[in-house]
Amino acid sequence: MTEAILLVGGKGTRLRPLTVHxxxxxxxxxxxxxxxxxxxRARAAGVEHIxxxxxxxxxxxxxxxxxxxxxxxxxxxxxxHEPLGTGxxxxxxxxxxxxxxxxxxxxxxxxxxxxxxxxxxxxxxRTAGADVSLHLTRVEDPRAFGLVPxxxxxxxxxxxxxxxxxxxxxxxxxxxxxxxxxxxxxxxxPAGRPVSVERETFPGLLAEGAxxxxxxxxxxxxxxxxxxxxxxxxxDLVLGRAPSPAVPGRRGDRLVLETAEVAPDAKLTxxxxxxxxxxxxxGARIDGSAVLDGAVIEEGAQIRDSLIxxxxxxxxxxVLDGAVIGDxxxxxxDNELxxxxxxxxxxxxxxxSVRFSSxx
Length: 360
Fold this sequence. Notes:
18% helix; Mannose-1P_guanyltransferase
């Protein structure tokens, strides 16, 4: 059975303050650490052995997931003590793989939420006789991504990093962050130094005449690298727009975990999550947001498209729109925070002291 590597070592800098105390793949999405969704989807696709390439806050993963048996998996953990990049991280875990030289190994980035048909990617790889296969997706504005043009057989012809001019945008296909490598190709990646698969490994293989195949899969795809995207991804999991067998409850307009306390007249909509031990007061209105474990939302608060960190407290009648509130922060009553504002962990904002939008 195909085995996999999950790259979960990034610092999640763009997601701060969510990642101050928690590595990005362990931030809850739809009620469980995001990594749980990836592991569950891999298992549903027939993967049994997964090696996690960890680095930042590496000590958090194994106590939570253990050997993986609760998910029907065999998990192993390898920690890089100095940043090695995507390629270096893949090479760093190679000794834990069981596959033979010509067998396929799946590789996933730990911050992508996707409906990718995993067995179809493996089958396309085998059918094409490729050395490496890439999941590609199409986007309307590809300027923030690496372009991957292919010929009419799906064979990759180039790797073009983040084009800026119209002339450089030769395709709308981008690297979607999931790959199949033949095991022998992994062994050619230089060991013990930083390597980028996007900038070094893939272009190098192409220059050497290797067969790199692209498979366009235009199902759900979202890079969860920003707080706004993370909130959206969590809501889409709850709403059923993004597939996962790991959502802990029925999909719908809201997900309320068993130990949460929600006032009868509070209204939770748009894929909102009320995490474990959360308390949501009378008259609160929460739309498309994630309220993480132990947070308190006082009466009459209005929250939209926001993420409330673990143990945070939002005061009565406070308005949040597109806000990110760090773990343990306290926002007093009658404040207004909009437009992507981020409040750091354990911050304390007095009542009626702030009316702020970062768009102003």
